[in-house]
């Protein structure tokens, strides 16, 4: 009887066979997964889940907004935005109010309690940036950002005309 072959995991840095024709895509996946994991760890320190801080950033900068506009700015679908707003509302960071000009619209606004959170979110995003960029020089950081923006534009152009959220609002 023949011994069973033991599957071997690819060595560190080695691409799986099926990903060899898409090394940049595989790298994006790996980096995004690790970035989101680390962001989640940092956000737990302030009582948030990943992407909730993106919603808060929009509200802090723009003030009261229609929920549909907020979803568009963050790059989220309506159902995801509704769940995110509900969680933030339960935590006391946002409040929903009916629009006086459009009875179908709901406005979302940051609460006073969320203002104390703002500095913490800014600080943890600075830490996340430092962790991600590591020992890159200022020039390398600028080059990396330019490459990521080009990658985003390339992908946005292929998504059926979907608008990319832009530098201030990565997708939820």
TrEMBL record:
Taxonomy, superkingdom: Bacteria
Return the Pfam families for the record. Answer: MarR
The protein's matches in Gene3D superfamilies, at most eight in alphabetical order, are given as: Winged helix-like DNA-binding domain superfamily/Winged helix DNA-binding domain (1.10.10.10)
Q: Supply the name of the protein.
A: HTH marR-type domain-containing protein
Q: Which SUPFAM superfamilies match?
A: Winged helix' DNA-binding domain (SSF46785)
Entry keywords, A to Z = DNA-binding, Transcription, Transcription regulation
In this chain the HTH marR-type domain maps to 21-153
Q: Per its UniProt record, what InterPro entries does this chain match? A: HTH_MarR-typ, MarR/SlyA-like, Tscrpt_reg_MarR-type_CS, WH-like_DNA-bd_sf, WH_DNA-bd_sf
Flavoprotein: present as a keyword of the record? no
């Amino acid at each position: 009887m023949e011994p069973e072959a033991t599957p071997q995991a690819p060595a560190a840095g080695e691409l799986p066979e099926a990903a060899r024709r898409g090394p940049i895509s595989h790298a994006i996946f790996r980096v995004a997964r690790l970035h989101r994991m680390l962001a989640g760890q940092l956000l737990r320190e302030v009582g948030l889940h990943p992407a909730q801080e993106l919603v808060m950033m929009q509200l802090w900068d723009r003030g009261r907004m229609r929920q549909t506009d907020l979803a568009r700015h963050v790059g989220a679908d309506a159902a995801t935005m509704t769940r995110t707003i509900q969680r933030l509302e339960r935590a006391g960071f946002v409040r929903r109010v009916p629009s006086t000009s459009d009875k179908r619209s709901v406005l979302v606004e940051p609460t006073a309690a969320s203002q104390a959170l703002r500095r913490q979110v800014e600080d943890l995003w600075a830490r996340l940036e430092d962790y991600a960029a590591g020992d890159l020089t200022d020039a390398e950081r600028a080059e990396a950002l330019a490459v990521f923006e080009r990658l985003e534009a390339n992908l946005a152009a292929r998504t059926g005309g979907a608008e990319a959220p832009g530098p201030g609002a990565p997708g939820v």
